[in-house]
């Protein structure tokens, strides 16, 4: 139950705040006062936060302690739900807090569905990379390219799991930075696949340029305030370039490489899955939101990409063997 004091403050101030277009829950005076009073009452008497009080007062589980839910974090979490309840009592739209919907914490995880689906993506990449290594010989063209892609994706999904478990500035930075590394890696793989018959020097120069670009972009994200809209535009632009390159390749080889349909199908389905991010609705049962669904939708698409790489590498090796080596192999089309 809300206290009379909180209700009075809420009724007097939330209307004015709404008129100022500050509809997010964390901007309401109700939430602000609730959090201040909670921290002052439960966290410390002298202004210093004491972690032991969070354990004792909030009856934290071992998972909450492992993931470092402090007393102030517990106050923020509790006040978030009090604010949600106040909005619901007045039939107002469910508010967001610090740019996020309210999620039900499970086993210490802030966004349990996104964590689980990120881990599923990691497992799928790990299994498909092992399948690639079983079915493709190490001397096949583009063999190492698949490993670069696989390792990059494994690293990205690890940090996605960590970020959705606990949202700190550092975990947020690493999640966004390594998520972009996956997008950039797909572009890199596309370029290297088109140029795999060209000189090692040319491929080395392009690799160095892309790595240097990524290092600079990582440094840009690390300095100053994080620009979400710019980062999204960069991701979309890189993804579109990658898809465009593969679409051109598919058109050129459509009569000679029937397995082109796999990479074409992958990008079409990936674009449809990404459209889930355009949806924005409160989490179902306070757990499943549009972002979690986007992570879930990418799980079955992983096999499409790896199966394409397996078939492509095996085909390129057969062509290499039949041509008697690279001397005539270089003269073939892509």
TrEMBL record:
Topological relation to the membrane, as annotated: Multi-pass membrane protein
GO biological process, one term: GPI anchor biosynthetic process
Matching InterPro entries: Per1-like
Record-level Gene Ontology MF annotations: hydrolase activity, acting on ester bonds
Keywords from the named record: Golgi apparatus, GPI-anchor biosynthesis, Membrane, Signal, Transmembrane, Transmembrane helix
Cellular compartment(s): Endomembrane system; Golgi apparatus membrane
Gene Ontology cellular component terms for the protein in this record: endoplasmic reticulum membrane; Golgi membrane
Chief site of localization: membrane
Signal sequence residues: 1-22
A Pfam family the protein falls into: Per1
Segments crossing the lipid bilayer: 112-129, 141-162, 174-191, 200-220, 232-251, 263-281, 293-310
Similarity annotation: Belongs to the PGAP3 family.
Role: Involved in the lipid remodeling steps of GPI-anchor maturation.
Protein name per its UniProtKB record: Post-GPI attachment to proteins factor 3
Organism field: Drosophila pseudoobscura pseudoobscura (Fruit fly)
Lineage of source species: Eukaryota, Metazoa, Ecdysozoa, Arthropoda, Hexapoda
